Amino acid sequence: MKLLKSNLSEKLIINKYLKKLNFKNKGTFDFENDGAYLDFNNKNYKLTVTTDSISENIDFFSNDDPKSIAQKITTVNLSDIFAMGALPHSYLLNLYLPNHINENWLNLFSNQLKKIQNKYGFYLLGGDLSKSNKLIVSATFFGSIKKKLELFQNKFDLNDDILVTGNIGESKIGLEILKKNNSLSINLNQYFIKKYLYPTPCKLGPLIANYVNSMKDISDGLIGDLIDMLNDKYGALINVNKIPLSVKTKKILNNKNNFRLEDLLNAGDDYGLIIISSKKNRNKIFNIANKNNINVTLIGKIISEKGIHFDSHLNIKNIKKFDHFF
Amino acid sequence: MKLLKSNLSEKLIINKYLKKLNFKNKGTFDFENDGAYLDFNNKNYKLTVTTDSISENIDFFSNDDPKSIAQKITTVNLSDIFAMGALPHSYLLNLYLPNHINENWLNLFSNQLKKIQNKYGFYLLGGDLSKSNKLIVSATFFGSIKKKLELFQNKFDLNDDILVTGNIGESKIGLEILKKNNSLSINLNQYFIKKYLYPTPCKLGPLIANYVNSMKDISDGLIGDLIDMLNDKYGALINVNKIPLSVKTKKILNNKNNFRLEDLLNAGDDYGLIIISSKKNRNKIFNIANKNNINVTLIGKIISEKGIHFDSHLNIKNIKKFDHFF
């Protein structure tokens, strides 16, 4: 771990808050080396890598609970790992810390990481600490996947099924409430804000990897990520009534609380999976999902006419991706 | 590669400046997936990982040549890889870009990366782009090393040799000139500033890995990094006259231009290697270094009395590490 060890506070960060996350794996050198060994010895599996960052005032608010920030940095990366059909193995953490970060913050943050690591079974391999005027949390995740498996995000055929896991739009509703663009009852506010602050990745990916053509996690809204997958080669026909919405979401859409279905499809971090697969594997996928208590919904199919098409009128004039970058 | 592709400018960054760096390696998916496969199939070797970041106004100046920034982010990471006795394999790049970064900047930056990749033989595996108010460049490097080799930074014996590669202090002199804390002749200014802006890693590490007990790159000054290696278990006795200095450095130290040897030992990014090895391997190490035209100097030995000791008077009152973090 490249950790500048001369300063008491930095040593303290490592020893008190980060070392417990290496789960005593030998290759980490207990964070006393500048580098680490990636212990990966299964010859039937290969390593997948993904890296993602979240920044203050872009991906979270300055005063967000550190537990939420830990939840987000792991979910954005784990959902990529799962979308590749892989299982998490280990990760690196790059922390850019402003002055206001204190021991209480580090305690809450690292405990939440530990909880998530235990849940999914992976360890902290190393990392790097820097001083910064804004809080940025970056991570690189390693996953393992069967050597023979190769999943492209944009390789599929005409008439393939388009499926999604979980419900769409709840995180976006929570974000709008937090931004005070909208408000519901206290209970509903709390429900949706929690969906925004504590997203979870969908672990179905590795379970169905043998039966799908492409997968992607929803990090830029259903439409945005689907456009990415279509890659300007194919189109998608979506059955609007099939788009999975929670009972609470349906209720507030009916009540016309300024939330429109169009906005929920066009933005937001749901972290469910978009799955594109051959019709012949449909039952297999549903069976595996059912056995694991994961909701999967068939929402449409791949067509030759480019772009996203809906089977009923939707008021989406400018289909655009939610864009973290600009 | 987790690259938010909806925006023309971002697509442009990827397509025009980053794709050329993947050297057409299949596992990169030509940066069209959120993740990548780490193709590493040699069963006699294992993967090493290191990650390091450099930030505007901490590790470089805002208006530094982008070629220098590319040189620094690769050197800080490559020198860790070499210090582990490994050869570079591939890397991930996380760029946090402020608004003032333009195509000219990206062109110079990416071309320098390409040049360095070609020189040492490694490719860009993936990465992540974020918007930021300050420029931060972060990288995660993968190296390959013989499976049986295990190099700790702080495992060695009493009376072991302490050696260093290259010359000490030139980068620090360059930094002080740039900070206008000091000035020499125009030619000397240029010489030392170049040493600061364009540091190079020392590739001796993997060539001598079988014959050393510990290695570390000098990123926090000779003394600071040696303290790290000693880890409060042993001490070091240093022969002051043996510390390798370039002819130019010796000249300016003699001229008393406000540069003191003490300051050069106590800070600075030289990126040479500190090598701790058994006496019995001394000749082997010198022979390999000679064959590869790399200067190695024996500067001292490991002793039982803790701390850093010098065989002649040096005015180092507060031995402290150069600290990037605080």
Describe this structure as you would to a colleague.
- 2 copies of one chain form a homodimer.
- Chain A is 32% helix and 23% strand.
- Chain A is built from 10 helices and 11 strands.
- Chain A has helices at residues 8-18, 66-83, 103-120, 170-178, 186-197, 204-208, 222-230, 247-254, 261-265, 282-291, and strands spanning 36-38, 45-55, 87-97, 123-131, 136-146, 161-165, 214-217, 235-238, 273-277, 296-303, 307-310.
- The longest helix of chain A has 18 residues, at 66-83.
- The first copy, chain A, is globular.
- Chain A starts with 7 loop residues before the first helix and ends in a 16-residue tail after the last strand.
- At the A-B interface, strand 1, strand 2, helix 2, strand 3 and strand 4 of A face strand 1, strand 2, helix 2, strand 3 and strand 4 of B.
